[in-house]
Amino acid sequence: MTGRRGALVRRWGGRAVGLTITAVGLYIVLPSLLTMFQAWPQLSTVDVPWFFVLLALQAGRLVSLWWLTKLALAPARVGWGTTATAQLAGSAAAKVVPGGGAVGGVVQARILIGAGQPSGTVASGLGAIALLQNAVLFLLPILTIPALLIGPPPAKQLQLGLVVSVVLATVIVTIGVTALTWPAVLRTTGHGIGRVVHVVRRRTTPESVATGLLTQRQRIAEGFHGRWLRAVFATAATRMFDYASLVAALVAFDVHARPSEVLLAFVVSQALAIVPITPGGVGFVDLGLTGMLVLIGVPTETAVIATLLYRLFSFWLPIPLGLFAWTGWRISRHYSRPMTERAGVDPTVPPSGTGCVECEASGGWWVHLRRCTQCGHVGCCDTSPMQHATAHWRESGHPVITSFEPGEDWFWDFTTESGFLGPTMCPATEHPLDQPAPGPAGRVPDDWRDHIHE
Ligand SMILES: [Zn+2]
Ligand SMILES: [Zn+2]
């Protein structure tokens, strides 16, 4: 009896605590949130072109984010539409459901897995994205230190913030790629930070910080399968488009401030968004951002209205988009034809063999294997040197492949460029477990990494 009650408390207790914190949090921020929304009519004083600038910058942020997701999921390709739907729906869920961060992740993962992505890839991919984004966020304040030390630039021209965002993006990419390419750099940095932290916190040692950093690096590297130049670039772009939006919102109200200080305000508000007190940090982010802007010398009234303008585009606008995307996804799943009737899929045709047909004939090798769901042709993936699976589609017109790798069951339609959940194919649904990837044994050269397509 006690055991059952214990389980119940464990199951619902955490949720009750979460809901209480959310309720209290909303109660605290509601008055200031209402004050902010009362500033709404003042938005009509903004010159119309600024709305388009903000719209374009936020669109840039979203596209970079979708690109980043695609990079993390690359081994099993996923279309832009699915990636966008999953991200928009996930972020909308995170904002409307209490304790939303986790719910948002689940919604996003469910859509991606429903589109035929292996669940392991989705989990490690989304984890790597979060890690990389937070790493870049915490790198930003460090980058502003030189600017703050040097002192105020001659003219307090905030428009420069747009240039600053481009420069920062370049710096972030350089630092990020250096840290990911040469682990030794990260180890030395970790030791350095550890030594400083050790003074304040005895339990932290230089070695533990270095090991922690290297573990994170390993997770990011695995999540992105070595495509980190593009991954870091996409992450830098998401953050910098967002920062540029804030700058634009301020410039729209003729605010004069230092770009470096606005960057600090931006970082603080983004960090507040990670703290799960209210869904998506609503209220706390707005309060924090307004407060930071006042702190750097923006008049209170302008700080309130500029925050409202920035949040309108970065926070509120994507919510209806996400709900729309989610509804559309559910409807399309409901009405999509049963997969067995799908053109190009015949579950009764067995695979042609255990290796790529053309590679076996020519003595070549491959990275991963794909099975044509129409004639059973086994071909090599697009990472492989010869890309025979895609070549088979071009020659025969057979539009669908499924993975021939152990543990993977995704389907890919070349014509619609999208993945889907297919029927159970007749065996064998994977190559023999003792056959390595890349394979086959004995034919893969030592320098195979130099021969593959990324
Ligand atoms: Zn091949
Ligand atoms: Zn075929």
Automatic annotation (TrEMBL):
It holds the Pfam family LPG_synthase_TM. Keywords: Cell membrane, Membrane, Transmembrane, Transmembrane helix. Residues 444-454 have a biased composition (Basic and acidic residues). The chain crosses the membrane at residues 12-30, 50-68, 126-150, 162-185, 228-253, 273-296, 308-329. Residues 428-454 are annotated as: Disordered. It is a multi-pass membrane protein. It is found in: Cell membrane. Its main location: membrane. It comes from the Bacteria. Residues 330-439 form the UBP-type domain. PANTHER family: UPF0104 MEMBRANE PROTEIN MJ1595. NCBIfam families: flippase-like domain. This is Flippase-like domain-containing protein. It comes from Nocardioides hankookensis.
